């Protein structure tokens, strides 16, 4: 082997090992600054704000309550008051109602609700609104010195990526915990499998293929009293400017595992196809694609491919297969199969513990808040989202996209004004072959 490939390989091994514990990247506390966060004592109450009170946010709030007996739900924010009330009703059916203390004056609706919730005397923010809003919500949470649970994806465009990178740095300066919603990183079987891969159990990873075959998400049928903006926000998953399209919103879980396997090494190039094969042509279905196939390339002919789609009434699975220079790996998170073949053959034992990964996210966050060490998922969560952005850029334009193109992307999908009575973007299905960056 020539010197250069060896150096690349060494660097990959180094990166892989450095990332071996990823999912729980723990970092020593930084020096105290003017923004230093008040330490949380072992018996102190920890007040939490939930921002985005839908399905995932409500689930995350329940997991936060379950994680630590000192957690109190203190504030809730949502674009719509009815979503706050229905989430609160769910929390009040759970086993921790005594610690659900969201007084009416701490239920913040509207687009400024997130900032007001962050400033309501809480120590932690759960960020689970549509992804378009995440960069501004993350910035508001960090500015208020809050520890953060941040759902994926963290941004929908290059503009949002820059904001999130700033917020991640800012959180680091303030020694705030930053736990991402990339849930597979906190699944015990995935952690053990990817740890072994990072330790070289299958040699150097030279190829990976991820299938994410699923069914369409539901839609909210338009109500006459909704403005155009409300209609789009109620159907956010199907609007590119709000969700980032499904290569960022859903397939990003698979891309995160690709990023994990490749040790956070950025791909040099990406090509992709995508489109709408069977999505109904109705306004509720917005402008997102229903299928993507994406190829990522690294030096020395290493490749990862993604096949993602949402078709109704079809076969579904979520599987990752990896080929290494000394063996292979097979991961099916949905049916619980995790195995390595080759000289270091292994499988995750059926009898081994498989704690709920969503619960583990919060168990680890609140443990870190109480007693450290600090968790900082910031860098790799940004990079996993950038893989999604790269795939979307390649699919929408039909061009080969380089990592430099991704780093230089400053696209901003926001409409000029985000207000309930303002005009949202006109849904437009992207056609490759045209000169567009989106
Ligand atoms: N990690 C996972 O497995 C997983 C699973 C599901 C969803 N998610 C992510 O969680 C997030 C929420 O998804 P969901 O399924 O709960 O969606 P949802 O539609 O059920 O909930 C989103 C909520 O955010 C509210 N909202 C809209 N704009 C807002 C704003 N500006 N400020 C505050 N709230 C606002 C909506 O009204 C809604 O109540 C998404 O980013 C999604 O990708 C992650």
Keywords:
9-stranded mixed beta sheet, 2 domains, 6-stranded parallel beta sheet, Dihydrodipicolinate Reductase, domain 2, binds nicotinamide-adenine-dinucleotide, 438 residues, 17 strands
Structure, explained:
The chain is α/β, with parallel strands linked by helices and 438 residues long. It has 2 domains: 32-176, Rossmann fold (3-Layer(aba) Sandwich), CATH 3.40.50; 185-353 and 377-408, Dihydrodipicolinate Reductase, domain 2 (2-Layer Sandwich). Helix content is 34%, strand content 20%. The protein has 14 helices and 17 strands. Strands 15-14-13-12-8-11-10-9-17 form a 9-stranded mixed beta sheet. A 6-stranded parallel beta sheet has the order 4-3-2-5-6-7, with helices on both faces. α2 (55-67) packs parallel to α3 (81-91), α5 (134-143) packs parallel to α6 (158-173) and α6 (158-173) runs antiparallel to α13. The longest helix is centred in the C-terminal third of the chain and has 20 residues, at 378-397. It is globular. The model is unreliable at 1-34 (pLDDT under 50). The protein binds nicotinamide-adenine-dinucleotide (NAD). Residues 51-57, 77-80, 83, 111, 113-114, 128-131, 133, 151-152, 181, 183, 233, 249 line the site of nicotinamide-adenine-dinucleotide (NAD).
Main sheet summary: 9 strands, mixed
For this structure, what is the CATH homologous superfamily of the largest domain?
Dihydrodipicolinate Reductase, domain 2
Low-confidence stretches: 1-34
CATH topology of the largest domain: Dihydrodipicolinate Reductase, domain 2
Structural class assignment: alpha/beta
């Amino acid at each position: 082997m020539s010197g250069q490939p060896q150096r690349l390989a060494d660097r990959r091994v180094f990166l892989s090992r450095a990332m071996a514990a990823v999912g729980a990247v723990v970092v020593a506390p930084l020096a105290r600054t003017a923004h230093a966060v008040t330490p949380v004592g072992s018996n102190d109450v920890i007040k939490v704000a939930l921002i985005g009170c839908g399905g995932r946010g409500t689930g995350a709030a329940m997991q936060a309550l379950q994680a630590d007996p000192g957690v109190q739900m203190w504030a809730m924010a949502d674009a719509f008051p009815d979503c706050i009330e229905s989430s609160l009703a769910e929390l009040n059916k759970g086993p921790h109602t005594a610690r659900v203390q969201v007084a009416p004056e701490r239920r913040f609706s509207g687009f400024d609700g997130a900032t007001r919730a962050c400033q309501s005397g809480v120590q932690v923010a759960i960020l689970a609104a549509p992804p378009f809003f995440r960069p501004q919500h993350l910035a508001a949470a960090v500015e208020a010195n809050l520890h953060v649970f941040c759902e994926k994806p963290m941004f929908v465009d290059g503009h949002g990526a820059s904001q999130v990178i700033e917020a991640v740095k800012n959180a680091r300066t303030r020694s705030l915990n930053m736990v991402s919603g990339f849930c597979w990183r906190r699944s015990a079987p995935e952690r053990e499998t990817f740890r072994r891969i990072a330790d070289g159990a299958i040699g150097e990873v030279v190829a990976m293929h991820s299938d994410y075959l699923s069914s369409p998400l539901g839609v909210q049928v338009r109500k006459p009293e909704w403005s155009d903006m409300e209609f789009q926000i109620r159907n956010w998953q199907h609007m590119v400017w709000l969700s980032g399209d499904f290569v960022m919103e859903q397939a990003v879980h698979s891309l995160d595992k690709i990023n994990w396997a490749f040790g956070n090494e950025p791909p040099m190039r990406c090509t992709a196809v995508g489109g709408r094969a069977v999505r109904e042509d109705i306004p509720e279905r917005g402008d997102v694609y229903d299928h993507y196939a994406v190829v990522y390339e690294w030096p020395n002919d290493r490749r990862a491919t993604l096949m993602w789609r949402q078709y109704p009434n079809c076969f579904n699975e979520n599987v990752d297969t990896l080929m290494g220079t000394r063996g292979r790996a097979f991961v099916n998170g949905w049916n619980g199969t995790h195995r390595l073949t080759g000289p270091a053959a292994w499988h995750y034992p059926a009898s081994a513990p498989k704690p709920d990964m969503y619960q583990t996210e919060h168990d680890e966050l609140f443990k870190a808040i109480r007693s450290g060490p600090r968790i900082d998922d910031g860098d790799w969560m940004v990079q996993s989202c950038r893989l999604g952005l790269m795939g979307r850029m390649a699919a929408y334009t039909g061009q080969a996209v380089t990592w430099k193109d991704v780093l230089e992307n400053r696209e901003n999908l926001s409409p000029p004004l985000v207000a309930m009575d303002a005009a949202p973007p006109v849904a437009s299905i992207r056609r490759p072959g045209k000169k567009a960056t989106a």
